[in-house]
Amino acid sequence: MARMLFKWLVMSLAVLAIPQLVGGITVESFATAVAVAAVLAVLNVVLKPILILLTLPLTILSLGFFILILNAFLVQMAPIFVSGFHVDSFKSAFISSLIISLVSWVANVFDERKVRWRINAGRRGGSNSASIPE
Hints:
The protein has five helices and two strands, in the order αβαααβα. The protein is mainly alpha-helical. The longest helix has about 35 residues, at about 90-125.
């Protein structure tokens, strides 16, 4: 649970930072950024697998590049569900989806290292049971 909240906070901070990095994106407040991060997470879990399946031939032909287009499409869909978040163009959505994907990847890498370190530390201590943080 703590890992999920940490990732949600990191994604919220990334969404809050995007207007300073990319023109054409507006986030009114931190609460809006938290809501956008939650909506993007739900869209990625519910809608993205369906879209990937429907566009599988394009994804294969483009060697996976089309998934970036789908990510941008999901970022453009977020303002439908969250007021206070505005995306002016597809280009802005595409660049912001790249930033969100990069931040998500970095958060996952650091989270994975933390888990691996705890597992290895538990084994060195002589205990056979390693606790993995939630």
